[in-house]
Recover the amino acids of this structure.
């Protein structure tokens, strides 16, 4: 996987800027597979990156579970209520079939179209188990349960794992070359808490899949890198707050490392000089580490300056 990318692979976590190019809305793209694919295709045709990601949508799995979602026209979707407060509440949730439930079928169609039309590695997002638990129960309630109600949290995490695994498996069967697990809520956990309440479930998901998995956790994950490696993931995506030098030292050379230009202050809204400086630093890193992919630290905003993206990709011509 990705061995055909040449000496330096370039694959920012981008999808939302395609909405600007297609002159559509977030709601259009999150609910209509044809619209989302067209937005992604405009990015692919303009830049031809070494890998393309689907659009990052952290509400998709929760909606498929039966949770009510707020869907503004031009902002990210979000969970309206967090109804799971006790083990019995899990009985009120669905066991979603990815072929039929919520917007999962739409996501399957997007990755299928990408696999048919994009001559690159195609990567599909799924949410992480602790993050889904936070959406179902509420972040503060789930984090409090780490210490005060471990039995409840274990039940909701087992449920979350089943939902995520089923969706990830379906995405892989519909053309995803790689799955990227997004686990932003785990950034609030200590290494020991992350191992017990996220990593062990992620490892079970990864071990059941036949495609490689990238793990991404937003924010400063310097202290979590060892436990992230322990999930048996194929690659790790680091945010801009992480020390690249530290990550290179901690992450084994046989794992892929993605990152980590600041997606907001540099790529989206910075100037060309800032982009040049960031690219130079990461090109030097890429020349020192074989399995390194120059990427953004996280998802690029929808209103990313397209001139900045143009300049970023020209750095690699």
């Amino acid at each position: 996987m990705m061995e055909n990318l040449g000496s330096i692979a370039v694959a920012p976590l981008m999808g939302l800027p395609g909405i600007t190019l297609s002159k559509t809305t977030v709601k259009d793209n999150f609910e209509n597979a044809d619209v989302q694919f067209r937005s992604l295709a405009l990015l692919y045709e303009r830049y031809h990156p070494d890998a393309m990601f689907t659009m990052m949508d952290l509400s998709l799995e929760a909606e498929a579970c039966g949770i009510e979602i707020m869907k503004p026209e031009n902002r990210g979707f979000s969970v309206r209520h967090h109804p799971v407060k006790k083990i019995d509440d899990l009985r009120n949730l669905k066991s979603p079939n990815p072929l039929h439930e919520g917007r999962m079928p739409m996501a399957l169609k997007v990755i299928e179209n990408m696999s048919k039309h994009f001559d690159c590695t195609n990567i599909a997002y799924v949410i992480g188990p602790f993050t889904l638990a936070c959406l179902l129960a509420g972040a503060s309630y789930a984090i409090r349960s780490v210490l005060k109600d471990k039995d409840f949290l274990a039940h909701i995490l087992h449920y979350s794992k089943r939902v995520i695994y089923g969706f990830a498996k379906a995405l892989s069967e519909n053309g995803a070359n790689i799955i990227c697990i997004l686990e932003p809520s785990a950034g609030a956990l200590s290494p020991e808490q992350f191992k017990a309440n996220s990593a062990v479930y992620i490892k079970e998901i990864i071990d059941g899949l036949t495609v490689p998995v990238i793990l991404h956790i937003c924010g400063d994950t310097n202290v979590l890198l060892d436990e992230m490696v322990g999930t048996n993931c194929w690659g790790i995506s680091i945010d801009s707050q992480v020390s690249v030098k530290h990550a290179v030292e901690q992450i084994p050379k046989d794992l892929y490392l993605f990152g980590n230009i600041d997606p907001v202050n540099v790529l989206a809204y910075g100037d060309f000089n800032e982009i040049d400086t960031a690219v130079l630093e990461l090109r030097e890193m890429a020349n020192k580490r074989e399995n390194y992919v120059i990427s953004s630290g996280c998802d690029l905003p929808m209103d990313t300056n397209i001139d900045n993206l143009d300049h970023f990709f020209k750095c690699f011509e």
